[in-house]
Amino acid sequence: MSDLLPFAVTARDGAARAGRLDTAHGAALTPAFMPVGTAATVKAAHPEAVAASGAEIILANTYHLMLRPGAERLARLGGLHRFMNWSGPILTDSGGFQVMSLASLREIGEDGVAFRSHLDGSRHDLSPERCIEIQHLLGADIAMVLDECTPFPATEAEAGHSMRLSLRWAARCRAAYRERPGHGLFGIVQGSVYPTLRSESAAGLRAIGFDGYALGGLAVGESGAQRLAMIEHAVPELPPERPRYLMGVGKPQDIVAAVARGIDLFDCVLPTRSGRNGQAFSRHGPINLRNARHAEDPRPLDQHCACPACRRYSRAYLHHLVVAKEILAAMLLTQHNLHYYGALMRDLRMAIRAGDLAAFVTRFEGEQAAGDIPPL
Q1: Which pLDDT belongs to residue 201?
Q2: What is the CATH number of the domain that holds 205?
Q3: Gyration radius of the chain's alpha carbons
């Protein structure tokens, strides 16, 4: 595969690495967290707020955008970047997760997925070739292959059948993909919690050749220990010169653990969904703003945070907004959570460059275990 999506590892600390991914719409420093903009928007945050949080790359959802407003319409309007006023890189997932989560609405076969829209019941056929065409029409910097996200639990035979179908789809996606400078296609390693299947999947994807490699089918119900075991097993089997993406994992402690094991990219709805539900992340763990103990607390969420919620508002005010169900609560807490994630990734990159990751992890775990500081 030609190197049309440059990626350079600039520092290492054990298995962890810091790097730079150069796309048609700019660079993203890694390790990086990608806020999720499912329907061409990061919920409760305008693009300037997302960029101000430190996010350089975001994720959008192929399945949802193909249904509304439609890939061809987006192409006529100048592509996804222009449509949503985001000038940085965009990664689009393939719709594979919806293949799992909307199981009652779809049928899977060798040719792809036939499903009925959750919006209006209309029938759609999503083949590997159509999946790639949609992402091309969207103008994604990074496209993902169509895969079946194997549900958990699954027997080894079930997981093997699913993984091999995903491999055949991956080969078809690669054949259909149109290479362009600054754009790339990622393969997705499947195999549930079975090491031999993960090895088979990784080997098959390497043989096809991709610009990056993701670990899929995790964070779907397996234990944290099982997830870490799969990461530790799969990472050494992926090309060291290409970026590695752990799909759908977003708890801060899980991100830190995965970075230490060599993962470069992450996405998750957790910071934005939590913000809409009154939960803020902090160096001392999650803070539930619904809790009455914040009602008269004049302190900021985090005195070390520079986001608008922490600079300008008290916990008491944020608590009031949350219990009053004001839209501003979702906006401020979402912005805070994105700032927290942005700072976490920046600190991880700095620790790797300084060769200080082990000490950073120890501090991080200690602060998280200590919990939120109670009001005076």
Answers
A1: 98
A2: 3.20.20.105
A3: 20
pLDDT of residue 100: 63
Q: Is residue 93 annotated as a catalytic residue, yes or no?
A: yes
Quick one: average pLDDT of 315-325? 98
Express each pLDDT in 152-202 by its tens digit.
999 999 999 999 999 999 999 999 999 999 999 999 999 999 999 999 999
Q: What is the mean pLDDT of residues 105-115?
A: 88
Of the residues 141, 147, 254, 267, only one is catalytic, namely 267
pTM score, two decimals?
Answer: 0.97
The question of whether 267 is a catalytic residue gets the answer yes
Instruction: Report residue 372: phi and psi, to 5°.
Output: -65, 145
| Residue pair 337/280 in contact by the 8 Å Cβ criterion | yes
Same domain, residue pair 261 and 284: no
User: Omega of the bond prior to 31 within 30 degrees of 0, cis?
Assistant: yes
Tell me how far apart the alpha carbons of residues 152 and 194 are, in angstroms, rounded to a whole number: 12
Is 376 a domain residue? no
Q: Are residues 240 and 315 in the same domain?
A: no
Q: Give me the residues paired with residue 288 across strands.
A: 279
CB 267 within 8 Å of CB 91: yes
Q: Is the peptide bond before 69 cis (omega within 30 degrees of 0)?
A: yes
Omega prior to 300 cis, within 30 of 0 = no
Query: pLDDT at residue 1 above 60?
Result: no
pLDDT score, position 115: 84
Among 93, 254, 264, 302, the active-site one is 93
